[in-house]
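User: Okay, second chain of the day. Same drill as before: sequence in, structure tokens out.
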Amino acid sequence: MLVTGASGFIGGRLVHRLIARKGRVACLVRAGSGVNDLRAAGVQLLTGDVTDRSSVERALEQSQASTVFHLAGLVRAPRRDDFTRVNVGGIEVVAAACAKRSVASRGAASGGRETVLVVVSSLSAAGPCTLDRQRVETDVPAPVSHYGRSKLAGEQAAARYAGAVPITIVRPPIVFGPGDRAVLEMFRSIARHGWHFVPARAPGGGDHRVSLVHVDDLVEGLFLAAEKGERLCEHGLPGADLPGAGGQGIYFIAADDNPTYAQLGQAIAAALDKKPPTVIRLPSPLLRLAGLGGDVMARIRRRPGSFRGWINSDKITEALAGSWTCSSARARTHLGWSPAATMADRLHETANWYRATGWL
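Assistant: Same drill. Structure tokens below.
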């Protein structure tokens, strides 16, 4: 197995679960990445960059990986070009290298094995949905943020190699669990002050809803996608010139619950053994101003995100775009996937981890 993005939240969890399954794991990591945890776990560390074709090909050769989990990417970036370089260019390079290896394996006299590529994309690539209808894989994607558009373009880049290498795309929604710092901010606000900040109500008075998935449940979905998932066809995504006709080769992996932002705060409070929080509804102009402030801080500090790490114009655009829910019915039917625990139990487990680690 070869994992890119192994030093990140999801990638690190994936690597440890692969090791627990007694798999042979190699990780392609950038020079300067925090790899102490990976080194202690005993994985094969290969230095390189997903945007560099030679280093990816070298990693495939050295690891002899039959499965590649591609998680490397940018969630936040101070410049739009950075999203394109990594989220699009990185997938292009990895898919091309996997395709080259698969073609060589098929042509080997001894009969080699194809390299399966699992690409971790995002619900952001599909776009928001209405209050009463979850996103499904056959929907035509309509991303609203620079990040979402870059993830969709990355999927399109991967799809160009679907005829040469087996590729499956997984689109998770909000991912939480031990090690996550994004949802941590919600936990902190509720734990310390009893406050929960949410966007103002949608036009018509409805509250936006969101899908979530625990990192371990997502990792299990990635395993299943690698083992028996459908593969992208060569004809594109739902809509003209897009990957996965009819949703083939694409899976949403999400818990059953689709809470409103306010309900999510209440569930987090319950996990923390706190009383229901005071819900503070922030009007759109104030949220957009906060996003601009995050952009300025990112430029000053020369890294994405504000002092809270996730607040920037791109993320505020997503927060204000509507509901972000998706159906995992396809993953249940095709992969036999289902969450291993309830949302309440997962949030409680996460709260306990935050406390034990000193993050709360």
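The first helix runs from residue 9 to 20.

User: Thanks, on to the next one.
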